[in-house]
Write a structure and sequence with these properties.
The chain has 96 residues and is mostly helical. The protein is 56% helix and 0% strand. The protein has one domain. The protein is globular and about 45 Å long.
Length: 96
């Protein structure tokens, strides 16, 4: 994906805007913002990365996941922070 970022036409521009406005959370919004930028103004990944405040590799990964798996790849459990499972209150206290 060297050169300009290209996204598959899974959704129309209006549908992407709607999903951006309906998503809660900064991580989901950033992912949709990457897709929106690539649709509106296809340009090098580095420029999209600067515009969205993400690393170039992250932009590349988001676009690749979207192209391969569609809009569902940007939603769901991947938006939650990783590395921390849910603990019961007693387990938290015992860990301290």
């Amino acid at each position: 994906m060297n050169g300009q970022a290209r996204v598959a036409h899974h959704l129309s521009l209006d549908e992407v805007r709607m999903r951006m406005s309906m998503r809660g959370g900064a991580l989901a919004l950033q992912k949709w913002l990457v897709i929106y930028n690539a649709m509106v103004d296809p340009r090098p990944l580095a420029q999209i990365a600067v515009h969205t405040g993400l690393a170039e590799g992250t932009v590349r990964r988001i676009i690749a996941e979207y192209n391969a798996a569609g809009p569902g790849s940007l939603e769901g459990e991947h938006d939650r922070p990783r590395g921390r499972g849910k603990r019961e209150a007693g387990q938290r206290a015992a860990a301290l």
